[in-house]
Amino acid sequence: MIFALLVVAAPVFLIADNVLTRTESVFLILIYVILFYFIEKKKGLLEVNKEKKHLKEKHLLEESLEFILATVITFLASRFIVNTTVDLAEYFKVSSFMISVVFLSIGTNIPEISLAIRSILMGKKEVALGDYLGSAAANTLFFGIFTLLNGARINISSYSLRTLIITLFGLGVFYLFSQSKKEISQKEGKVLLLIYLLFIVS
User: Which part of the chain is the Sodium/calcium exchanger membrane region domain (predicted)?
Assistant: First the structure.
């Protein structure tokens, strides 16, 4: 849990100087690989997948076509979202980074929100918690990959020390709440929501 949260928080530390270099992007990819290695070593995820692999060949083509179609739709939707984000930033005279943090982040987490709601309704809260950590850690991986593919350092002028402090504070509170009773209560959820609102207005 602690190392997973460190992986999630790594980009927050690295962009504290308003710059993310290619060397730092490699570091982000590396720590995610390390995290995956330890999880796989402990849980044996790859072996489990091998044991459960029973997909018939006649279903393979169907699954492949669905994957390709989903990839194309995602690409087209992403292009639209990026263009809309830039337009909104220009209209409201704010940085595209802040628009992305506030609005885009919610949109990209809709699948996680949906899964979390279904998991809670089914009484499997640990699934929702695992999905959150897994998704957040994967963002670190993608952040590193896309920065590396960009071919140059990324400058983030809108990032401030106050944002860094609030983000780390939120992660710390989340860790304490999740470890207290191995679950997050409604009151603790409200506290986390208030921290997020504080993050937005900061």
Answer: 67-201
